[in-house]
Specification:
Length: 119
């Protein structure tokens, strides 16, 4: 199934709104390395079924050493909304400058994009 631009944008905007004031965890397996907060809104409005995350509220320090390989994004009430891959290349769902983090080091998300296939 493919959606029109209008439908894809509406779906993307509605699902991204669930992350307003939510939070993002970067993990190595099940080990939490970093937790950051989304702003409100969390994402720019979708265009062509693609929505990019706005900058997170703050750059935070990692709480543990490791190589981030997955992320989980939660609503403000703690409901899991999505998860995906983490890496240093555009093939990852969430892109970091460096996926290897050290406790106490500042971590900044380079890109987090949500895509819905369109016609």
């Amino acid at each position: 199934m493919r959606l029109s631009d209008v439908a894809a944008n509406a779906e993307a905007d509605a699902s991204r709104a669930l992350l307003d004031d939510g939070y993002l965890r970067l993990l190595q397996g099940e080990q939490i390395l970093v937790e950051q907060r989304f702003g409100s809104p969390a994402y720019r409005r979708a265009v062509g079924g693609v929505a990019d995350a706005l900058p997170l509220r703050q750059v935070v320090a990692a709480v543990a050493d490791g190589t981030a390989d997955i992320y989980r994004a939660y609503a403000s009430d703690g409901t899991l909304i999505e998860s995906g891959t983490v890496g240093e290349s555009s093939t990852s769902d969430l892109v970091l400058d460096r996926a290897e983090v050290r406790a106490g080091a500042l971590v900044s998300v380079t890109r987090l994009t949500y895509r819905i296939p369109v016609e």
